[in-house]
Structures are given as structure tokens and as C-alpha cells.
Amino acid sequence: MGIDLKRETEATEINQITEYINKVLNVIEKEEITEEDANWITKETVDGFREHVNPGFLSYRKTVTKDGQFAAVEWSDGGSCFKDVSGKEYIDCLGGFGIYNVGHRHPKVVKAVTDQLKRQALHSQDLLDPLRAMLAKILADITPGDLKYAFFTNSGTESVEAALKLAKMYSERTTFISTTKAFHGKSLGSLSGTAKGMFRKPFMPLIPGFRHVPFGDIDMMRKTFETCAMVGEDVAAVLLEPIQGEGGIIIPPEGYHKQVRELCDEFGALLIFDEVQTGMGRTGKMFAADLFEVVPDIICLAKAFGGGVMPAGAIVAREDVFKSWFENPFMHTTTFGGNPLACAAAIATISVLLEEKLPERSAEVGEYFLSELRKAAEGHEDKVLEIRGQGLMIGIEFHKDEIGYEVSKGMFDNGILVAGTLINSKTIRIEPALTIRYDEVDKVVNSFKEVLGKVKA
Ligand SMILES: *Cc1c(COP(=O)(O)O)cnc(C)c1O
């Protein structure tokens, strides 16, 4: 009797779950949603975040938005914009932390992924998969210098992990130098390179051997190399973002990367460029390495690599370095890395970047954007400390965090998404699609000017 009763409740519960799932699938399927759908989606989203995702996100949203806008629920995207469920459009200047270099859902990327999906989604894991080989060849062609062999990942942090392991295996050394304000990801290995104490402290000890030196300070870098050599802890590699993204869009002094390259050569260390954010045209060149005219030994990619359609990442290394993994290609692996859908997306993304000359466009539009923002900030020196950038990687640094929050709030109200950087919340970033139109840039600048006029210093 008891058992039957339990079975019955289980059956009703399963019915309820299936009913809910069907409702969700039905909403996914819809091309247009009604106001009733929108209300249901918003309620389910807010409740779901509160009860099952993490209520902290709701509190965070309340600090960066006005009135009831914390509950804005995103629903669709295209070009430089995304829309919420109620149909309000936002110009996306956060760009998903820099993933939408070719824009949101670029038709060519979507087509390559859908075409591939119709044939095969994931790979067998055993036979030779064609797109991985083709993408690796393309990468060898477009990356700087003699970078030649690629290993594929699903995210930025995984690319950094792969680079660290490769550097250890190649050098048989375990010391790494990274920099203050660096961001390399949050898995335990990459977190060791990341600089912000708040993100690191609860997880210590991280992997041993990491030294942090101030970004841009070549003398400290040299001293650290020398000290490490003296105490028998020779440096395996320097891990560096060519331009720091999450640290607040920080551009190093002239000649810094070339000097770091020289130090690495002098001490027999590898140079790893973490171009997860600066890569794929963001800074006005295909890679920031091209901008600084420095060839690293390993380059890390992700974010925009999958064209804003698929999660995808990669490292590309010199043959001499990558050779460490020839004998046993299973030394470092990932099940999903380099899957056919991700490779199709990355190949189409590179095609769009080249065909539409997006790196060049990024340089051109970025210069205009930067100078217009600087003009808009004239007379507000009490609020704005500095506006800096390279290509379409632009940071606006305020004197206080609060001013940054108020400006983001006001601009969000005007239909523009901007946000602070992870390590440095005094700086908001502007990292739109490299396809952003000039009239959209003007709209962002006008909104910035208007909002800046209203907030208090
Ligand atoms: C975002 C970022 C990462 C981490 O990428 P995830 O895909 O979030 O793991 C690593 N390095 C840099 C420079 C980044 O900007």
C-alpha cells in the first residue's frame, strides 16, 4: 500500500516535470513570444536564479541597474545588439567580455555551425577528425612567427592550463612569472596566474611556483628572473596578457613586450601570451602580438575564437615546444575540445575577420570611439580619471567605483550595456562587436555624455 502510494506520487511528480520541460521547449521553439510568455519567462528566470542558480546574481543586478530593471531577461541577439524578453534593445558594449568580435550570431558563423550540425555534432574521439586538422593549419598561417601546432580547448582557462602544462613539460621547470592585475581564468592552475587576492585567497595553496611582478615594470621582471636563477628556481615561462583586460584595459609602456621577450631568451624561459581577450582582431590587429611585434612561444585563445556562437579555445605553440607532446598525444586531453561544431565556428569566424577586414575596422572605429569619448568627458575631470584603449578595447577609469556604477546604470537605462572589469571595478570597459556601426558609436557616446553630466563626482 505504502509502496503504491509512493509510486503514485512519483508518477505525478514526473508528470509535472515533463509538463514543465515541454513548456520550456515550446518557448525555445517559438520565433515570436507573446507578452504572456515574456512575463512567464521573467518570473521563472528570477525565481530560478533565487532558488536554484544563485541569489547573489539578483543582488548584483540590483546594484548595477535602476528601478525594476535588475530583472531584465535577455532573449535574442544579432549584429551589435541583444534584446530582452520585452523587446527592449541594448547596444552591447560589454560584448560578453569580448566574445562578440564578429558580432552577435554572424550569419556565416551560424551557417557553418548549422551545416556541420546537420552532418555530425561531436567527434568519435578516435578516428581523425577533419576540421581540427584544417583549423590547426589555418591557425598556423594567421598566428605570428613560427607558431605551428594547435591544441583545442573549450574556454580561456583551459587554454591557459594547457599552456602551463606544456611549458612545464618542455622546460622541466616549475616557476612561472605573471603580473599584478592579471586575469588568466579561475580554474586552480590559471587562478595561480590571476592576480586578484579576493578570487585567490579561499583556494590557497594554489599551484606552487608562481611569482607576480607589477605589469609593465621591466626592472622588477629582470630582478625576479635573476633571483629565481640564483635560488635554483629557474623560470619555465612568463605568462602575460599583451594588454590587460580584466585588470582595467591596461596598455604596457612602449617596448615592454620586446624587453620581456629578450629576458625570456636570456634566461631560457618561454613567453606565453594570453590573448584570450586581445586576440581575434580586438586591438586593431589579428593578435596583439602583431601589434607589439613580438612572437610568443605559446599563444592562448578563446572568447571570440568561437565567433560568439560556440564555446571554443586553443593554444598554438612553436614546434620545438609542442614537440613535448608528440610522443604521447594523450599527455593532455579534453573530450570536447576541438569538436566539429567549435571548429566550424572558429573557421567561419576567421573567414569573417579576414573578409570583412575586422582587425583594421577595429583600429579605425576604435580611434574614433576613443577620441569621441574623450571629448564627451571634457569638463568632467573630477569624475573621469582616464580614458584609454587600443582598437575596440577601451576602458574608462573613474575616480571612484560608485561613479562607474552610476554611469553603467544610466547607460543601461538608455539601452547600452557597459560593465566594470573583474579585477578593477573603477574601470568600465567598452568592447563592442568589431562590426559596430558609426551611428551606434555616436549613440553610446551621446548617452555617456548625458549620463556623465547627471552623476555626482
Ligand atoms: C576571460 C579570460 C580568461 C578566462 O577565460 P574563460 O573562458 O572565462 O575561462 C583568461 N584569460 C584572459 C585574458 C581573459 O580575458
UniProtKB/TrEMBL annotation:
Keywords: Aminotransferase, Pyridoxal phosphate, Transferase. Its EC number is 2.6.1.82. PROSITE patterns: AA_TRANSFER_CLASS_3. GO terms for molecular function: identical protein binding; putrescine--2-oxoglutarate transaminase activity; pyridoxal phosphate binding. GO terms for biological process: putrescine catabolic process. It comes from the Bacteria. InterPro entries: Aminotrans_3, Aminotrans_3_PPA_site, Class-III_PLP-dep_AT, PyrdxlP-dep_Trfase, PyrdxlP-dep_Trfase_major, PyrdxlP-dep_Trfase_small. Its cofactor is pyridoxal 5'-phosphate. It is an enzyme of class 2 (transferase). Pfam families: Aminotran_3 (PF00202). Belongs to the class-III pyridoxal-phosphate-dependent aminotransferase family. This is Putrescine aminotransferase.
